[in-house]
Amino acid sequence: MRHKLGYKKLNRTSEHRKALIKNMLNSLIKYEQITTTLPKAKVLKPQADKIITLGKKNNLQNTKILISKLQDTKSANKVKKTLAKRYEGRKGGYTRIIKSGYRYGDNAPLAVIEFVDRDVQAKRVDKKKKDTTKKTEETKAVSA
What's the CA gap between 77 and 63, in Å, rounded? Predict the structure, then answer.
């Protein structure tokens, strides 16, 4: 019997769990692939699928719900503009979980959660391009 086994609590209070899921959703939307522990990935997968489904239905109410759940307008815009168009022909299963071994420190099972048909360049959103011309000018000025 499965009485009162609705969801995983992850040994956190409800506020901490909600904040954790919200932050992981925002990271997943931004980078389209994140590495986390297996239980957290299993909790995140249905939430991410629901967010994509909300973004596919294009009306004001769903936009407001998206912004309230994610607390980030950039993420909500990416869901509505990019991800909803990418998955318009798919009826579900927008994410996948790939087991990736165990963490070195505490031997916790790790997993990679990612969008199906993800954009590989999305992982480099925050990485700045190195400006080599500026450094060479500075080294020439210092050495002269």
Answer: 9
CATH number at residue 107: 3.90.1030.10
Q: Look at residue 138 and tell me if it is in a domain.
A: no
Name the pTM for this structure. Answer: 0.83
Sorted by sequence, the CB contacts under 8 Å of residue 140 that are 6+ apart come out as: none
User: According to the per-residue pLDDT averaged within each range, which of 15-19, 124-128, 130-134 is highest?
Assistant: 15-19
Burial of 47 (0-12, 13-18, 19+ CB in 10 A): middle
Rounded to whole angstroms, the Cα distance separating 32 from 132 reads 29
The neighbouring-strand residues paired with 115 are: 95
State the average pLDDT over residues 79-93: 93
Work out how many domains the chain is built from and give that number: 1
Whether residue 136 is contained in a domain is answered as no
Provide the 3-class DSSP secondary structure of residue 106.
coil
Instruction: Tell me, yes or no, whether 46 lies in a domain.
Output: yes
In which domain, by residue range, is 53 found?
Answer: 14-125
pLDDT band for 17, please (50, 70, 90 cuts).
very high
